Amino acid sequence: MGLREIKKQQTRTAIADAALPLFLKHGFDQVTVAEVARQAGVSTNTVFNYFPTKEDLFFDRQAEVEGHLGALVRNRAPGTCPVETICNDLLAAVRHDDPTIGLHPDAPRFWQVIHDSAALRAREREISERAETALTTALAEHPPNTPNGPDPADHPMPALLAGAIAGTHRAALRELQRRILSGESPTDARDRVATAAFQAFNLLCSGLHADANQTSQELRLPQ
User: Looking at beta carbons, which pairs linking 146-155 to residues 24 or more positions away fall under 8 Å?
Assistant: First the structure.
């Protein structure tokens, strides 16, 4: 990365870092882009150059989130079940208090700001839909090993499997949020959600690999 690109990335990060505390303190709808610009020490036009919409300022890692599940599937080891890969990634994040899934002190306020804003809730749905679409593409290009072999082109299975995997992943994160927002300790919420998520993904994996004799592959609980 050249010096120009580094400076642009630093400016983008500085703007996002200035915006988030304002959103957390005042709420998304109550903060203007001009206020973010003043806080970051740049012009309003500069903010829009890096973030076309105010929602982009809040979800500044949107592209990374949208591509994450698909990247896991594309980069998995040969012969590895995509369900197992995504399950292990989620469990590792939950058990190690990964801040990218909200396990940090500001998480409850972050989730509450989203809940209070119709614009953010709509953007969150869009991010989920794009993540599922990216996962569908990855599963079509890098399909799992199944008893019947690879599906023909334009088969609906990648889309259906992506919906099941992404839906389970999304539901696990929402359940984690719900429990923490309701006052449950993060440790208890983490452990309960990790156990339930493993069981749910195991059902998906078993069904995906079941052969004609109804034998199936089961996930191994990661250490």
Answer: 146/208, 146/209, 147/209, 147/210, 147/211, 147/212
Phi, psi of 119 (to 5 degrees): -65, -40
Gap between the Cα atoms of 151 and 120, Å rounded: 37
Secondary structure (DSSP) of 128-148: HHHHHHHHHHHHHHSPPP-TT
- CA 19/CA 25 separation, integer angstroms: 10
Report the distance separating Cα 209 and Cα 146, nearest Å: 5
d(CA 168, CA 72): 15
- DSSP count for the chain of H helices, then E strands: 10, 0
Q: Give per-residue burial for 39-70: e unless 16+ CB within 10 Å, then b.
A: bbebeeeebeebbeebbbbbbbebeebbbbbb
Q: At what angle do helices 62-74 and 82-95 cross, to 10 degrees?
A: 130
Tokens of 12: 């983008």
pLDDT tens digits, residue range 141-156? 998 866 655 565 667 8
pLDDT tens-digit map of 155-187: 788 999 999 999 999 999 999 999 988 989 888
d(CA 92, CA 103): 12
The CA distance from 25 to 87, in Å, is 34
| Secondary structure (3-state) at 8 | helix
Give the chain's radius of gyration (CA, Å).
Answer: 20
pTM: 0.85
